[in-house]
Amino acid sequence: xxxxxxxxxxxxxxxxxxxxxxxxxxxxxxxxxxxxxxxxxxxxxxxxxxxxxxxxxxxxxxxxxxxxxxxxxxxxxxxxxxxxxxxxxxxxxxxxxxxxxxxxxxxxxxxxxxxxxxxxxxxxxxxxxxxxxxxxxxxxxxxxxxxxxxxxxxxxxxxxxxxxxxxxxxxxxxxxxxxxxxxxxxxxxxxxxxxxxxxxxxxxxxxxxxxxxxxxxxxxxxxxxxxxxxxxxxxxxxxxxxxxxxxxxxxxxxxxxxxxxxxxxxxxxxxxxxxxxxxxxxxxxxxxxxxxxxxxxxxxxxxxxxxxxxxxxxxxxxxxxxxxxxxxxxxxxxxxxxxxxxxxxxxxxxxxxxxxxxxxxxxxxxxxxxxxxxxxxxxxxxxxxxxxxxxxxxxxxxxxxxxxxxxxxxxxxxxxxxxxxxxxxxxxxxxxxxxxxxxxxxxxxxxxxxxxxxxxxxxxxxxxxxxxxxxxxxxxxxxxx
Length: 481
Fold this sequence. Notes:
This protein is an alpha+beta fold. 40% of the residues lie in helices and 23% in strands. It has helices at residues 3-26, 42-56, 75-89, 130-140, 146-150, 153-156, 159-165, 181-194, 214-229, 233-241, 250-263, 300-303, 307-327, 369-382, 437-443, 447-457; strands at residues 28-29, 64-70, 96-102, 111-113, 118-121, 124-127, 170-176, 200-205, 210-212, 266-275, 286-296, 345-352, 355-362, 398-405, 409-410, 423-428, 431-435, 471-474, 476-480.
């Protein structure tokens, strides 16, 4: 070998090493399960997805779809079920899909977030949204664990569907290790902080029960589906912690549901259910498959009340106080306006001669609106620790103001807070405080004063609001008699 040819070979070898190093640094993940869980041939895979999506048809659901629950078995078993979810969202303007799958191959605490690069499938490269991935990592405290992604199928099998229905969309692959409540809460909180305002969809990858007889599997799966429809997060969390055979991806599903609940009233819409026996799998070792959409409820009833509804609520608040002062009983009531049965948070403010006399309420939509107002009115009159209980003789001069709260929204930057439009909530440890939107306007506060006074109300240092994870904003309908 001549010196020249030797140098050429060395140069080419170094160039190849640098190229491979560059690909590795970019985080390129090759398709591991193509040819096993789904077609390896690009044309055949594309045609198969077209068939599945066409069979799923088109349908609509009420509210905004912010997430999907999708199965992750081989396409021959669960592809048609998965297609029902992806067909539903095909027309949405989605730029990034966060895929959360459970770890089947590697045990670890927390989650692993794929921070950069891309996932390669037979349909091409799905680029990672590195900006969003880093933001989720920062907010959750979870980093990147290479072993978690190396051979994990629960995330990979979602990618071809995403490439098909959202061409050019980026992804954020997340693998959840040991499925615990703290891990779920940390991820859900990060999603709620990072995603609002972005054109993003969250996919929770899971199958249902595993390896039961078909009759047992279908019965257990139906119970799980009922819990999902009811948004019974407490029971689902308990079953996850006990490692019950309901879903291999209980943690990813709960993270999606908790994220949805943080954004406002949510609903799970079941789109399809099947099992492995339906396509020829053994009937004594069945796996269940579910496709469902997670939707935010339209909140028109909470943000736009008619004059008749406002009048009824004001009358109810006054009457509830009268009944309680007479009998120490909460009023029994049937609203005349049907929308007053919508769950909603509300505060009742009492004033005498334009001076505050009591203010108490509920930030979360725990009760129907009429019940929230009735209870808040009684509590404001009798339990506000700043004032003595209201006397019956004061009722005639009592001014009543009601604030019906919209959903709590995370604050990613304080510039989002509009004084006079937004109310604020801060929660840190056992301390919390809330200020209604009108308070800042009435007292002439600017944004910084509003934030400082919120902290003081919660008994926190003036700058505690700088921990944005603890801060939420909301809008309210405010009216008075």
